[in-house]
Design goal:
The longest helix is centred in the first third of the chain and has 29 residues, at 32-60. The chain has helices at residues 9-27, 32-60, 64-68, 72-78, 81-86, 97-112, 117-137. The protein is mainly alpha-helical. The protein is globular, with a radius of gyration of 14 Å. The protein has seven helices and no strands.
């Protein structure tokens, strides 16, 4: 049976974020770190679901053109975590710096492995979908 998509933009964002974690865990079933990052996402979601969308959008919207054009070179060579964090909300009620840094580096390392082109395309699609629903959640569209 197929799951129905939530009705709200935030619900759709969270649904696809969960789908992203499920996809990368399925793609790399022996990587136990991915289970940790997924569990942390689920915990953050309980705490403040809209903050997840806000953080994602504010840190990635400056790179929207690179995401939509699937610019591998930018992602691997030019994008620096410090730049992403510079765009994060400053008064966060939780400290996610280590989580964010670890997840970013983990995805980057996985990208450099023998990740097939179809898997990379799927990841790019997730980023674009998440950015779209995140922007709708924040009324930026």
């Amino acid at each position: 049976m197929r799951k129905t998509l939530p009705e709200t933009d935030l619900g759709k964002f969270l649904h696809h974020m969960n789908g992203f974690f499920e996809f990368i865990k399925q793609t790399f079933p022996n990587d136990k770190d991915l289970e940790y990052y997924h569990d942390q996402f689920l915990e953050f979601k309980k705490y403040n679901a809209s903050l997840i969308a806000q953080m994602f959008v504010e840190s990635t919207i400056p790179y929207e053109a690179h995401i939509l054009s699937r610019n591998d070179k930018f992602f691997l060579d030019e994008l620096k975590l410090e730049e992403l964090q510079k765009n994060m909300p400053q008064n966060l009620p939780i400290n996610i710096g280590d989580y964010e840094k670890g997840l970013y580096e983990k995805i980057r390392r996985l990208w450099l492995t023998d990740l097939e082109k179809t898997a990379k395309n799927t990841i790019w699609k997730y980023f674009a979908i998440l950015l779209g629903y995140g922007k709708k959640t924040m009324n930026l569209m």
